[in-house]
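INSTRUCTION: Work out how this chain folds

Token vocabulary: learned, describes local backbone geometry

RECORD BEGINS BELOW THIS LINE
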Amino acid sequence: MTRARTLTLAALRSGGKPAMATALAEIERKPNAKASLDLLDRAFMAPRAHVLGVTGPPGVGKSTLAGALVGLLRERGEMVGVIAVDPSSRTSGGALLGDRLRLSVEADEGVFVRSMAARDRLGGLADLTVAAATLMRAVYDRVLIETVGVGQSETDIAIAADTILFCVQPGSGDALQFMKAGIVEIPDIVAVTKSDLGQAAAKAAADAALGLDLGLGERGRPAPTVTVSASRRRGLDALLAAVEDHRAWLGEDDRLARRRHEQALRWLKAALRDRFGQDGLARLGQVSLKPDQPPFSHLAELARTLGSDEFAP
């Protein structure tokens, strides 16, 4: 079982970390191969995990908070897949920071960590994040995506995560920048980190709440603000409760299905634009997806319509 074409979802679910690592490596090496597209299509149709995106400016403590949340989820018996999108070396293009979380959970068979280099992408995600998240959410109980954190370009996480957790820290101006940047329309939950800083943390929480009031309505639900101190394990239960409340809300009235369909369509259009430019996208006219239609093989079909042999069998 060394090639992605031999891996079924059942094999991935029973094969542990080696099976997932093999599948992701093959998809990264041959993203346009029929075997890769078929596996992603099957995974898209069989989701089981809730996907939590953790985002926010650099230095806010996303990695520490993500690690604490993973620990709490493991205490509850959940199998967790983690995608850590890191800043990358301009020389090698490799990820620089993802090994920290990987090392902390290396011996835990219930946690799989995949680090990805953002390279020159400014939206906080790597090129293969959506594909990896799709595959992981068909295997694990929870998927957590931690983005690079680049201020105003954090909105890409909205095409990959079910629930978006935006982090700000006291005394940094993050909360005010959060209001100015238009990012208020993205979060489902705001976490004020380093809550042990007292009044500064309270002010950051108040500023963030004000910003959320100004942007209310875009995501369809008021976003709560929770203060946490990951290093001291304060506020984590309240934060996870807020995550579970949002997950429950998504489960009502087909909200989750609609959100994931919109995400898939946005990813499809972005992928076509990246490969063929705005003119290529315009040549296709109205790009659409049927309900529950996987975007991966459909991308290949549309690419062939544009005369590309990139997806030739």
